[in-house]
Amino acid sequence: MRLTNWFENRPPIKRWMQRRLPRCHEVTLSQRQIFVFLTKEGGLFTVLLAVTFLAGVNYANNLILGVFFLLSSILVIAMHHSYAQLSGLKIKVLHASDSQAEGQARFQIELSPTTAKCYCQLELIWQQYQRIAVLNEKQILHFDIDTPQRGRFLPPRLMLQSVYPLGLIRAWTYIYFDQEVWVSPRPIEAERNVLNRIGGEGEETHGLSGQDEFFELKNYVQGESLSRVSWSHLAKGQGLLSKQFIDFSAEQDALDYQQMPAIDHETKLSQMAYWVQILDSQNIAFSMKLPSSELALGQGEQHTHQALRLLAEAP
Q: From CA 81, how far away is CA 252, in angstroms rounded?
């Protein structure tokens, strides 16, 4: 374990760093956020400096002292350049996708220089390792972060570091993003009596292909009927959108928390998540009832997302 890692894991240091580096949506790195210290090679280099200095003083040899001062100036210049590799760099989180328990949430971050200089040998560690050899314009990176349990999730710290140019000095920083994601329960298969399903046995489940009632707008897919295009939105410059309808005479279902066969709360939510995915895959409109909230009858990707969000937010 690095000496710096051991030092940072001390409780007083952790509290100090949390005050110094609060959670944020974006940050431009400056002296306040950047830490600088010797690498292992830099430590050996410092020992060499000490030996050179002692030899020069002991033997009163100006040549050896000259070598010492030359090497010392190289170390100071390396420290300056290592710090410069992070200073002025802007990092912000663009998007984070919701996830399910024991899954992964994808975070999208953007790195952009605020000056005309190039940033070299940047290393990012966020449960995954990514390296940027040269950064001279905006660059977008993706990280998949583990989400161990249901509920509100704030990502762990992102570490950004560089040992450019000589590997003697390490400059690094930690970034705590405030971008939260909601983690839905991990689906657990469960049998249930479909007591609340409406629709004849021989009826076809039309779902979003019905023509009864307007439901939502979504991006137009090539091949869809032009009669479904929302021309008013196109005229406003909002793009080509397709009207979606739901057929409330087709098969429907009602998910009820009390009907789940499990005993404990978390397992019941996981079983409901399973049935949400089953009904969505079968294009069956459904409503959902939880002890603290309800979701009206609906269908489609957005409706499924709302159902999973309610399960994630359930107390």
A: 65
